[in-house]
Model the fold of this input.
Amino acid sequence: MDNYKKDSLTLKGAIALGTGVMIGAGIFALLGQVAELSGTWFPYIFIIGAIISGFSAYSYIKVSNAYPSAGGIAMILMKAYGKTTLTAAASVLMALSMIINESLVARTFGSYTLQLFDVEKNSLWVPALGVALLIVAYIINVSGNKVIGKTSQFMAFIKIAGIIVFAIGGLWAAHFTIGDLLPVTANTNNYSAASYIGAIALSILAYKGFTTITNSGGEITKPHKNVGRSIIISLLICTIVYFLVAISVNASLTISEIVKAKDYSLAEAARPAFGNYGLYFTVGIAIVATISGVIASIFAVSRMTAMLTDMKLIPHSHFGMSGSVQKHMLLYIVVIAIALTIFFDLSRIASIGAIFYLVMDMIVHWGVFKHLRKEVNANGIILISALLLDLIVLIAFLWIKASSDIFVVIVSAIGVILVFAGEKWFLHWKENE
Done:
C-alpha cells in the first residue's frame, strides 16, 4: 500500500475502495442508530440519505473530473479558497471525521465480536477490542503490507456478497411479501420531523466513504471519466445493499428490538432467522468488513494529513521519531482514534462525525459554487440544492442533539472552533515566519 502510481487503480479497484469504506462502517455501525430516530421508515431513510449524498457527490465529481489529483478534498478546497484558514480548517474537519469513523468502526468490531461470547453487552471488552483492532491496523500500515492492497477488491466482494446473502436469507426466513415494504404507520406519531431529518444525517454518514475515491484521483485510470463513474457506481451499490439489509432487519425484528441491540442489530436479526449458524456468519462478515475498513481508512487519513503537512496547512512535529511524515501521521491518527474509542459510545461518535462532515461538505459546495462553477462547468442549481440540503439536515440534527444529548453539541462546537482558531493562528504564524 505504500506505492501509489499513476494509472495503478482501475475502475473496479476504485469502486471496491469506495464501497469497502462505506459498507465497512455504514450498515453495521449505523443501522440501529437510524432506526432509533425514524422507526419503521428507516429503510427509506437510507434511500433519502443516498439521494442527498448524490447531490453532494456532484461537487466532488465535477472538480475531480476536471482536476484529478491525489489531493482529493484538500485539492478542491485549495482551488476554491486558496491557502486560507477556510481551506485548512475544512480539510482538518474532513480528516477528523474520517478518524471518528475509524473509532466508530472499531467499537462496532468490538460489539459484533462479543456476540460470539457470553459476556455483558456493556462490557469493557467493546472498547478493548476496538483498541486492539486499531493497534493491529497501525502495525499493518506501518509494515507496508502489500497483501492488503492486493486483496482489497476480494475483501470488498466478500463483504458485499455476504451482506446480500444475509439480507435475502433474512427476507426468506421472515416470509417476506411485497406488502411488508410498506412501513407500519401506527407509531409514526412517536417521531417528529426533526427526528426523521436527524436519522437522515446519520444515513449520510454511511455514504460519505465515496469521498475516499477523490483522494485517489491521481492513481485511477482515465481519471477524467472514472473518478465520477466510480463514485456514482459505489453510491448505487451501497444504496441497494443498505436498503436490502434494512428491509431484512425490519422484517426480522421489531423497532424496540432493533433499538435495544442498536450496536449489533444485524447479529441480533440473524438469531431468529438463521439460529447460531446465521449469527456466526453475520458476525464473521462484520469482522471482515470492520477490519478491512479500518485498515484502509487509517491509510487514507495518514496520506491525506501527510499531504496537508506538505502543503503547510497543518503543523507537524517529528517528536524525535525517524521515518516519513506519513508514518508519523499514522501514529497520531491511531492515538486519537483510540482515545475516541475508549471515551465515546457509538451514538456519540456517529453524531460528532456527522456534524463535522456536514460542516465540511457545505464549505466544499459553497467554494465550488462561488469560485469554480464556471471553471468546471457545474450546474449552480444543483450546487445550491446540495448546500441547502446539508444545512437543513445539520440544523435539525443539532436541534435533536441539543434536546437529547447536549454534550455532543458542545463537544462538536468546541471542536469546530478549535480547528478554525488553531488553523488561523498556525497560518498567521507561518506567514510571519
